[in-house]
Amino acid sequence: MTTPSPAGKLSFFKDLHPPKSRFQDDVLEGLSRPQKSIPPKHFYDARGSALFDDITDTEDYYVTRTEIGILDAIAGDIAAKAGPGAVVIEPGSGSSVKIDKLLNALDRPAAYIGLDISKEHLISACEDLAARYDGLSVGAICADFTQPVPLEDLPIPDGKRLVFFPGSTIGNFEPGGAKALLETIRDWLRPGDALLIGADRVKSADILENAYDDARGVTAAFNLNLLTRINRELNGTIETDAFDHKAVWNSEAARVEMHLVANRDTEFSVSGQTFRFSAGETIHTENSHKFSIERFTALAESAGLAVRQNWSDARGYFTLYWLERA
Ligand code: AVJ
């Protein structure tokens, strides 16, 4: 059922009842594997979200600032390509800086539809937009976009759809998952609709490793906060000082990997289950894939999308792509 939002500021709110985030299952399962691992989506508790915001302010993490610079430079191009009355659809928790750039660039956008797995986050972000943009029709869909999300039966206003997926979040997915996500988005597009997506580029190992191991130690705190979260929410007994942050460029897989490395033998329990680490053993906590323009274009094509235009910063650190159905 589609219901008015609690506060009534949204034009619609649809809860597709995404499965609860499986934090406990993912941690117990991930720590039981030969290469221990925990999916990066679990970084984002309140403290983790705040630390991520702090990362985007560090000198070393060039990603956010570079993408915002490109958005500023291409605002006119985007407005011309989208035309008047666009319906903006944003999967994932939006950074308000980026969505503001887009909405302010566009010619009288008709609507904004937010789509996120976290209901609280989604509603507050969408209500904030509705309050700040007079005359913008704002809808919200609570869903897990790593699964197909059919939009057919939802009251999405008429108009050219522009799906906005900035941040290089696509890089968090393994190649198969990235293709599946692009296919989900492709199914939202009709002829003439578009996807504007950001993807970070391959560059030298030292620049990449510094971006994920910043000099101020914010990224280290972000990574280690996962252990604090486990201790708090899953009855964990992890001695967090037994682990160090590590970021390493894996050139074969074209990704920066983040790990938590045991700096001594250590043993702890989580939800009553015991885990043992030898010194040097790691928990793999994140992959951030990096893409040449050629590789990203091929990935898009594999998902039935065609790159119509792309824009990069002068250093070639980051690229925004305009994709349409192939
Ligand atoms: C939010 C997934 C795009 O991979 O660059 C930043 C997360 N991790 N520093 C990224 C992150 C460590 C970020 N994404």
Précis, in short:
The protein is of the alpha/beta class and 326 residues long. 33% of the residues lie in helices and 27% in strands.
Q: Could you describe the 3D structure shown?
A:
The protein is globular and about 60 Å long. By secondary structure, it is an alpha/beta fold. 37% of the residues are buried. The chain starts with a strand and ends with a strand. The longest helix has 20 residues, at 63-82. The chain is built from nine helices and 15 strands. The protein has helices spanning 23-30, 46-56, 63-82, 96-105, 119-132, 175-186, 205-211, 218-233, 293-302, and strands at residues 2-3, 12-15, 36-37, 87-91, 111-116, 137-142, 161-165, 194-200, 243-250, 255-262, 266-270, 273-277, 282-289, 305-312, 318-325. Helix 2 packs antiparallel against helix 8 (218-233). The structure holds N,N,N-trimethyl-histidine.
Identify every distinct bound molecule in the structure, by name, code or SMILES: N,N,N-trimethyl-histidine
The biggest sheet, with number of strands, parallel, antiparallel or mixed sense and barrel status, is: 9 strands, mixed
- The largest beta-sheet arranges its strands as 1-2-6-5-4-7-8-15-14
Helical/strand content category: alpha/beta
The N- to C-terminal Cα distance equals 33 Å
Shape, please? globular
The count of DSSP E runs of length 2 or more, i.e. the number of strands, is: 15
Order of helices and strands: EEHEHHEHEHEEHEHHEEEEEHEE
